[in-house]
């Protein structure tokens, strides 16, 4: 578990409270922040947790201010936790481009210098953050996970790599096959090295093709007017992988929607209801 927790924001919202906390992460060896929405009634009963992973360039703020998730979370009695997208701060390696370094952790454990010492977002999201959340708030050990773009990639990979740990998974416009697109080539090459055999375990389409212990349904919403659809996201590759092995997939192509939080906010209630069904049966 990381260092002492400090609450840095707290605002009443839909009968609950939207907070931001700061702590020193052992996994990332830097100070980290995450948002947490605590629904009304949390003082009387513990609640399951839905983890949100944001996309490139985001911090914890993008989701908590733009996704409009709090009302549905309050309705269903679910805690939502939204971490930052990467390590940050003095001594943390960075890159001048937006798609590598700070704001671009890709939810993996880096193996190459200079990234390996801090860029361990997979370990942070899967192990350290849940331990903090479940040890600090009135949270149960029931978890689900979802995300957007780079975070959609992260949510799919984390759920697929950890059978039994998450009740459900969904994504908005995820990077479905990072090994086959420019964003993934750049990030994986830097963080993992040039040996592409090491990339497969961080690629949802590749993981689907493997011998998985669990076939958790993948719920994905993708806008048809997303400028990254054909070049970076490629849901058709994930769809083909699922069809080949019979992995359950609900891929919904949303006519006219783009890659923005306007798109995310439009279908957020449906995603939270999907996770509430898995977490609470309601």
Low-confidence stretches: none
Supply the helix-strand structural class: alpha/beta
CATH superfamily: Alpha/Beta hydrolase fold, catalytic domain
Overall mean pLDDT stands at 96
Provide the succession of SSEs.
Answer: EEEEHHEHEHEHHEHHEH
CATH architecture: 3-Layer(aba) Sandwich
Q: Write down the CATH class.
A: Alpha Beta
- Put simply, the count of helices is 9
Q: What Rg is obtained from the alpha carbons, in whole angstroms?
A: 17 Å
User: How is the main sheet built?
Assistant: 9 strands, mixed
List the helices and strands and how they pair.
Elements: E1 6-13, E2 16-25, E3 30-38, E4 47-53, H1 60-66, H2 70-76, E5 79-83, H3 121-136, E6 139-148, H4 150-161, E7 169-172, H5 182-192, H6 204-208, E8 218-223, H7 229-233, H8 235-245, E9 249-254, H9 261-280
Parallel strand pairs: 4-5, 4-6, 6-7, 7-8, 8-9
Antiparallel strand pairs: 1-2, 2-3, 3-5
């Amino acid at each position: 578990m990381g260092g002492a927790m400090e609450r840095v924001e707290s605002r009443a919202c839909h009968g609950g409270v939207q907070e931001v906390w700061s702590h020193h992460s052992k996994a990332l060896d830097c100070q980290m922040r995450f948002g947490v929405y605590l629904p009304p009634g949390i003082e009387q009963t513990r609640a399951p947790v839905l983890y949100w992973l944001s996309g490139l360039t985001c911090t914890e703020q993008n989701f908590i201010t733009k996704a409009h998730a709090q009302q549905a979370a309050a309705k269903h009695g679910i805690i939502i936790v939204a971490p930052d997208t990467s390590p940050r701060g003095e001594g943390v390696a960075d890159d001048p481009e937006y798609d590598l370094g700070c704001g671009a952790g890709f939810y993996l454990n880096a193996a190459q210098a200079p990234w390996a010492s801090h860029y361990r977002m997979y370990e942070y999201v899967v192990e350290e953050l849940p331990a903090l959340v479940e040890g600090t708030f009135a949270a149960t050990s029931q978890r689900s996970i979802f995300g957007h773009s780079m975070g959609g990639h992260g949510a799919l990979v984390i759920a697929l790599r950890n059978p039994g740990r998450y009740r459900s998974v969904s994504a908005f416009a995820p990077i479905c096959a990072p090994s086959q697109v420019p964003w993934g080539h750049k990030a994986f090459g830097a963080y993992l090295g040039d040996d592409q055999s090491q990339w497969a375990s961080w690629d949802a389409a590749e993981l689907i093709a493997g011998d998985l212990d669990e076939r958790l349904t993948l719920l994905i919403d993708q806008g048809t007017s997303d400028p990254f659809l054909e070049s970076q996201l490629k849901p058709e590759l994930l769809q083909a992988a699922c069809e080949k092995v019979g992995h359950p997939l609900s891929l919904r192509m949303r006519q006219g929607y783009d890659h923005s939080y306007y798109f995310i906010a439009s279908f957020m209630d449906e995603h939270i209801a999907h996770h509430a069904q898995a977490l609470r049966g309601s």
